[in-house]
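User: Can you recover a sequence for this backbone? Please restate the input before giving your answer.

Assistant: Of course. Working from this structure:
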């Protein structure tokens, strides 16, 4: 399965070609049609713990129209052994909002944060920091 026609225009923030390539590369290894189900990409760093830190888990969802719905970056909050994995940054491309540590903002006002996040995520991906799973959204 290949989503080379991933929709990348018309968003409140720019989606880099590099991010599109990551999603296309990972989608090519799957055997379901995202235009019928939507698709969720889960990027997890096995060594990430509340004690040691590390690369935050990330979830990226595309709708059946192959448009980006959201990107969520998770982090541990609280002290071990009671720390819980929670949303730290949530870029909601369908609602044009960004939530960061519980505060909500218009997404276009957070372009600098998004650009830094996107740059770092792609670098971590290229380093092989993540185990990746892909599933149907619906």
């Amino acid at each position: 399965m290949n989503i080379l026609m991933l929709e990348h225009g018309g968003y409140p923030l720019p989606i880099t070609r590099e991010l599109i390539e990551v999603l296309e590369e990972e989608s090519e290894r799957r055997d379901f049609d995202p235009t019928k189900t939507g698709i969720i990409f889960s990027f997890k760093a096995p060594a990430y713990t509340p004690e040691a830190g590390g690369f935050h888990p990330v979830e990226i969802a595309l709708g059946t129209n192959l448009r980006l719905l959201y990107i969520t970056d998770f982090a541990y909050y609280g002290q071990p052994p009671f720390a819980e994995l929670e949303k730290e940054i949530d870029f909601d491309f369908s609602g044009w909002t960004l939530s960061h540590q519980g505060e909500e903002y218009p997404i276009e006002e957070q372009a600098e944060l998004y650009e830094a996040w996107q740059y770092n995520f792609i670098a971590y991906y290229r380093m092989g920091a993540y185990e990746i799973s892909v599933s149907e959204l619906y």
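That completes the design. Residues 111-126 form the longest helix (16 residues).
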